[in-house]
């Protein structure tokens, strides 16, 4: 495995992209292949083995695979990735993959119970969601039962903040993920680890403000190429926010190797880069593996 200055990176946001998974996920070639420039050799599907080969080439040791829940069941633009598909990948490659359970706020306590099973029975390490697919901001009451369960299980929840990136004329999505909506959640659940993914663009300064204010709020770097990260975000990673930011790609939205290469070109301070690429994920998700500096948890 090629490593970035000896750092075996951890990618906290990765979509499972096998043929089996993509039979469940609606094809959006105009979005993935068009707007997001996903490579032709990736667009249809790739095997776990090919994903691992690409992770190795980029120096990524482990990835968090998402069992996504994208919108309410029954709509042709929406899908729920079965937890079992991600659990099978974890069982096959336990030293490379971890699982994140997608959550649907409209499933109520039945969904909460299923999420709990994903943690207790499948070993998933957290929750994941896209608020815009439900047009419910993160501080809406329908999310709160899941937040309470995350606190009880002592696992983080990550959610897209910032604008909705996809537009489907048959299913237009409002951008409900302003980072400021995490403020009430962090106040109501001070024990809950909240991870705002997708950098918060175009409201990155607002996302930084939330992570600065609340000790339990963190930022994921996925879905936006590092060479386009706002200057304020680069400064935050390199200085007073170096314990708050975790590396992610949202693969296949971002290519593993290209993303790591772009991070290298940004010339972060070694300690700040190490924390972002690995150490913060180990600490925040309580992974039973060493940090990049060789220390335990």
UniProtKB/TrEMBL annotation:
This is Amidohydrolase-related domain-containing protein. It holds the Pfam family Amidohydro_2. It comes from Caballeronia sordidicola (Burkholderia sordidicola). InterPro entries: ACMSD, Amidohydro-rel, Metal_Hydrolase. One of its GO terms (molecular function) is carboxy-lyase activity. The lineage of its organism: Bacteria, Pseudomonadati, Pseudomonadota, Betaproteobacteria, Burkholderiales. The keyword Lyase applies. SUPFAM superfamilies: Metallo-dependent hydrolases. Keywords: Lyase. It comes from the Bacteria. Residues 50-287 form the Amidohydrolase-related domain.
């Amino acid at each position: 495995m090629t490593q970035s200055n000896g750092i075996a990176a951890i990618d906290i946001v990765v979509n499972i992209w096998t043929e089996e998974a993509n039979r469940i996920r609606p094809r959006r070639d105009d979005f993935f292949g068009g707007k997001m420039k996903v490579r032709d050799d990736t667009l249809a599907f790739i095997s776990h083995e090919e994903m691992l080969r690409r992770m190795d080439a980029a120096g990524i040791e482990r990835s968090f695979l998402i069992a996504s829940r994208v919108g309410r069941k029954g709509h042709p633009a929406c899908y729920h990735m079965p937890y079992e598909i991600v659990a099978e990948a974890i069982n096959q490659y336990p030293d490379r993959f971890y699982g994140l359970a997608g959550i649907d706020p409209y499933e109520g306590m039945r969904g909460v119970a299923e999420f709990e099973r994903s943690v207790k029975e499948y070993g998933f390490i957290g929750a994941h969601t896209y608020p815009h697919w439900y047009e419910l901001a993160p501080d809406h009451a329908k999310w709160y039962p899941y937040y309470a369960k995350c606190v009880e299980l002592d696992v983080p929840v990550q959610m897209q903040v910032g604008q909705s990136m996809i537009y489907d004329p048959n299913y237009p999505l409002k951008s409900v993920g302003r980072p400021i909506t995490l403020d009430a959640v962090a106040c109501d659940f001070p024990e809950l680890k909240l991870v705002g993914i997708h950098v918060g663009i175009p409201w990155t300064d607002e996302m930084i403000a939330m992570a600065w204010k609340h000790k339990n709020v963190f930022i994921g770097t996925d879905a936006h190429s590092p060479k386009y990260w706002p200057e304020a975000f680069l400064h935050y990673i390199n200085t007073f926010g170096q314990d708050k930011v975790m590396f992610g790609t949202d693969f296949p939205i971002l290519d593993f190797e290209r993303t790591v290469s772009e991070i290298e070109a940004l010339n972060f301070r070694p300690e700040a880069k190490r924390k972002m690429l690995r150490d913060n994920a180990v600490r925040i998700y309580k992974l039973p593996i060493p940090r990049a500096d060789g220390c335990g948890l």
